[in-house]
């Protein structure tokens, strides 16, 4: 009996094994490794947002606002270099405000891989409601659908918020369109330069001056988590570090520093400001705790230590120093210990800024009679130069760590021209270099974190 | 005893059932998606004999070897290519064709004469003399014998050739593997043209996703491509991976149809797994 059971088990196991072998053989399969792709921009179609009812508003007709919203979104996405807008003249289907699925067969011949449709209406409360949907034209599915309500004049900001959602859904990275840039606006001749603190949307819209030019302002830097700026200003020839809240328009003096002060910058939690202070011709790194205003010295070296920048986790600080004979990049722990050099290339390195992603450090490289923007990993490996103009300097990261903004100064010519700084941006891969529109000469940009959005 | 027998029968039935499912394939139980919209024009990729198709030299060699073939015609595996060739169209039916009247019976001698007419050189009838008829017949008989012998020889040759063909080809396996490798390279190159993803995204160099497709006999997708072993893509913390995976799926859909793969996946029973790796999209 036991033998029979054994036989049965063995027979069953053998049969099962045979079935599995047979099954795998019956389903012929092919495995293909795809290790390459294209970096061509993704074609995206963004028709005008359609009004439910085309009525006049304080900011214009709803149909005009709808068209402007789609233009802002298009401009934002195209400016990344990752998307290509399909020519509206080629659109076959007219998108209406009716909440229906698009006819995908009408968009595929245009090679559009993504489609953005939107509708807007004026609510009885007088607010503007804007709804958008992002469609995957190839898979024929809705990828995203969100509605926003806002005062009518705020439509431009809605366009930026929608751009962020689309960008985030299609790239997997956070968007950076609903952000602002603070910079130094420069006017006047080279010998009598008037420098004013200015702020604008990341695309150059909504320009505002925050100071009137009576005092010299330098090195504005955004708080990483608040709409707050720290900057250096010379008041009656004394350097002062200021805090300025954009939302409340309130200035606050952080402290009077009797000696030269450079490059104040926030810690990632926004509770500290790190800077370099010069004493007796020697500059070292100090950190100020904002709630207590207590100042702590972090470096103590005969060399010039300056331009400190925190890592996003707040555990490390990168700065530049000439303690080794030439200006190079160094990394230390947040308490000032474990200082080690990370840059070893030819030339000098300045203004290091740690990426919000944490994986790269941007810097200005000086050498071969040029100032160029580059990046390297925090361990100093993988150095790459992203620009190659005459004078590019002062990089600042977009909040998602994808784009760098910097200022480029043109070369002086024999006719007394040149020497004009302007803002530029470049993707961290070195592609997609673009000038950022400013009404005047502009230098020393700093990128804000995303503006706060109130959710229902 | 009776219970045991029932158990054996049940076991046998279940085994047959499992084997049937394995044969037919579970995927076939799924509903096919509706016919897709008109396909987008896609550049076909030439299939090289060697696996290093990316090298420009290899492409030149291929062009030299088969310059007259278009890609569609020059499908990769010559052995199976004949199977994939379209059958000749049947001749159109003609109505009311009069049936041929039966031929009058011909005697053996007349048959012989006919064969002589075929093989012998025509001579003017005026020069044919009655006394030479017997010699002509003799000659015709000789020729007939020679022709029969030659026919036999040819038949023997054909039989030998068939026997030779029936012998297992020692290089068939290698040829098949080369053909499969070449097809894999071709598909990889084809997908590379359809796959778009932003360069420089953080951690993209470590990302991988497998997209599985099932095909109709004409090479179009039989259903929406599936992700293999990706876990929960709706997890908010995996937004970036979801985007990566979706870009791979979009590429597979854009590159449809896959006619070239049908020789490797006969009768549409199999599937293709595309393993996408993001290393190429690192920003370095």
Helix and strand topology:
The complex is a heterodimer of chains A (456) and B (284).
Chain A: H1 2-26, E1 29-34, E2 42-45, E3 50-51, E4 56-57, E5 60-61, H2 62-79, E6 83-85, E7 114-122, E8 127-136, E9 141-151, H3 155-171, E10 180-187, E11 194-201, E12 208-209, E13 216-222, E14 228-235, E15 238-245, E16 250-256, E17 261-266, E18 272-279, E19 282-289, E20 294-297, E21 305-310, E22 316-321, E23 328-333, E24 340-341, E25 348-354, E26 361-367, E27 370-376, E28 384-385, E29 392-397, E30 403-409, E31 421-427, E32 434-435, E33 441-447
Parallel strand pairs in A: 2-6, 2-7, 3-7
Antiparallel strand pairs in A: 4-5, 7-8, 8-9, 10-11, 10-33, 11-12, 13-14, 14-15, 15-16, 17-18, 18-19, 19-20, 21-22, 22-23, 23-24, 25-26, 26-27, 27-28, 29-30, 30-31, 31-32
Chain B: H1 2-24, H2 56-65, H3 78-84, H4 108-119, H5 133-166, H6 172-194, E1 208-214, E2 226-228, H7 239-254, E3 271-277
């Amino acid at each position: 009996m036991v033998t029979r059971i054994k036989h049965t088990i063995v027979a069953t196991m053998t049969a099962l094994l045979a079935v599995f072998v047979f099954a795998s053989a019956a389903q012929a399969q092919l495995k293909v490794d795809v290790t390459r792709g294209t970096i061509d921009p993704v074609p995206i179609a963004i028709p005008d947002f359609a009004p439910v009812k085309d009525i006049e508003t304080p900011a214009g007709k709803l149909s005009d606002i709808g068209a402007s919203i789609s233009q802002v979104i298009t401009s934002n996405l195209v400016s990344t270099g990752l998307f290509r807008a399909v020519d509206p003249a080629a659109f076959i289907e007219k998108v209406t405000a009716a909440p229906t699925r698009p006819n995908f067969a009408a968009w595929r011949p245009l090679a559009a891989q993504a489609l953005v449709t939107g509708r807007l209406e004026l609510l009885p409360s007088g607010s503007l409601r804007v709804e958008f949907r992002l469609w995957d034209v190839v898979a024929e599915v809705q990828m995203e659908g969100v509605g926003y309500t806002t005062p009518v004049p705020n439509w431009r900001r809605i366009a930026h918020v929608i751009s962020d959602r689309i960008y985030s859904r299609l790239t997997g990275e956070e968007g950076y369109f609903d952000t602002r840039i603070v910079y130094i606006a420069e006017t006047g001749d080279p010998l009598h330069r008037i420098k004013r603190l200015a702020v604008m949307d990341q695309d150059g819209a909504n320009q505002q001056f925050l100071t009137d030019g009576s005092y010299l302002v330098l090195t504005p830097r955004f708080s990483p988590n608040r709409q707050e700026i720290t900057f250096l200003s010379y008041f009656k020839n004394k350097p002062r570090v200021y805090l300025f809240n954009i939302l409340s328009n309130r200035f606050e003096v952080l402290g009077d520093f009797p000696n030269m002060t450079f490059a104040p910058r926030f810690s990632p939690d926004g509770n500290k400001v790190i800077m370099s202070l010069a004493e007796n011709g020697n500059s070292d790194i100090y950190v100020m705790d904002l709630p207590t205003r207590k100042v702590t010295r972090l470096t103590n070296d005969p060399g010039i230590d300056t331009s400190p920048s925190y890592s996003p986790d707040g555990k490390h600080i990168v700065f530049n120093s000439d303690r080794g004979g030439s200006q190079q990049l160094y990394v230390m722990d947040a308490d000032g210990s474990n200082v080690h050099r990370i840059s070893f290339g030819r030339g000098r390195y300045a203004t290091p800024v740690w990426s919000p992603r944490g994986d790269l450090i941007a810097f200005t490289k000086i050498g071969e009679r040029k100032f160029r923007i580059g990046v390297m990993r925090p361990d100093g490996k993988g150095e790459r130069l992203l620009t190659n103009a005459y004078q590019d300097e002062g990089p600042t990261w977009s909040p998602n760590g994808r784009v760098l903004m910097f200022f480029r100064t043109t070369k002086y010519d024999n006719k007394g021209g040149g020497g004009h700084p302007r803002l530029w941006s470049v993707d961290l891969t070195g592609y997609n270099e673009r000038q950022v529109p400013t009404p005047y000469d502009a230098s020393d940009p700093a990128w804000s974190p995303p503006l706060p959005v109130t959710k229902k | 005893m009776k219970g045991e027998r029932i158990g054996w029968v049940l076991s046998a039935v279940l085994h047959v059932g499992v084997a049937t499912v394995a044969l037919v394939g579970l995927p076939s139980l799924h509903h096919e998606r509706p016919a897709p919209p008109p396909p987008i024009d896609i550049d076909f990729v030439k299939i090289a004999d060697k696996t290093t198709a990316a090298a420009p030299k290899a492409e030149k060699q291929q062009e030299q070897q088969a310059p007259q073939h278009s890609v569609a015609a020059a499908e990769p595996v010559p052995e199976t290519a004949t199977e994939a060739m379209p059958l000749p169209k049947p001749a159109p039916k003609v109505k009311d064709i009069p049936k041929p009247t039966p031929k009058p019976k011909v005697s053996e001698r007349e048959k012989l004469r006919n064969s002589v007419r075929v093989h012998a050189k025509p001579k003017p009838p005026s020069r044919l003399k009655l006394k030479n008829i017997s010699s002509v017949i003799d000659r015709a008989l000789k020729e007939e014998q020679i022709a029969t012998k030659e026919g036999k020889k040819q038949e023997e040759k054909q039989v030998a050739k068939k026997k030779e063909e029936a012998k297992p080809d020692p290089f068939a396996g290698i040829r098949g593997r080369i053909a499969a490798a070449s097809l894999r390279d071709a598909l990889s190159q084809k997908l590379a043209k359809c796959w778009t993803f932003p360069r420089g995204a953080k951690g993209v160099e470590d990302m991988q996703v497998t997209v599985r497709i099932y095909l109709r006999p004409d090479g179009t997708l039989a259903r929406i491509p599936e992700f293999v072993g990706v876990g929960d893509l709706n997890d908010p913390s995996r937004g970036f991976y979801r985007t990566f995976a979706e870009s791979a799926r979009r590429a597979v859909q854009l590159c449809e149809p896959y006619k070239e793969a049908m020789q490797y996946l006969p009768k549409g029973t199999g599937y293709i797994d595309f393993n996408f790796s993001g290393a190429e999209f690192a920003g370095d």
